[in-house]
Specification:
Largest sheet: 6 strands, mixed, barrel
Shape: elongated
Distance between the termini: 97 Å
Strand order of the largest sheet: 1-3-2-6-5-4
Order of helices and strands: EHEEHHEEEEHEEEEEEHH
Number of helices: 6
Strand content: 35-45%
Amino acid sequence: MKFVAFERAKQGTGASRRLRITGRTPGIVYGGTGEPSLIEIDHNALWHAIKKEAFHATILEMELGGTEHKVLLRDLQMHPYKQQILHIDFQRVEATTRMTVKVPLHYSGEEESPAVKAENCLVNHVMTELSLSCFPADIPEFIAVDLSGLKKGSPLHVKDITLPKGVKFVAKGQENPVLVSVTAIQEEVEAAPAEGAAAAVNPKAAAGKAASAAKDAAKAPVKKK
């Protein structure tokens, strides 16, 4: 995926604010053998680019000063309530250096799984992306995960899926975290009315109450018309 950036001469809070007013987004490119470079990008073009999944998980081709650079998106700062990108960071990519990247997970097949079709279970996607380590040429755009074999009581873990060749999972606190959980759905049972339940538990007592009420009604004086 390609995009165009321009060199930025001024830095600082005031300079960045004035840049945003003109419809540009300030940014920086770092890493590799070169020095960090201050850049600016057309905000509208960048806004449309960040909506594409590939912009976040693949190597990008950045044109800067007539030269093409291979970079990877590293950070994106958004305005707390406006639809505005405040700042963006990129890292230069070197073919011989392993990188740690976050790659999205694409789930499919859960509607056809025994857990959903036959066992009345709810499938929950616990993780939507994975941190992976690989060389730039091996970075996958996404990881496809087939859920058609899910069964009740059998959650899916990282070690249950096959990663592409040359790609390793980067554990951050958990060696084998859960990707997908499977939970049985308990059917709601309507509670019976309190009086009906009492009668069902003790039918003799209910019959006695009914007979007593009938006697009281018979003893009551009849009103003359």
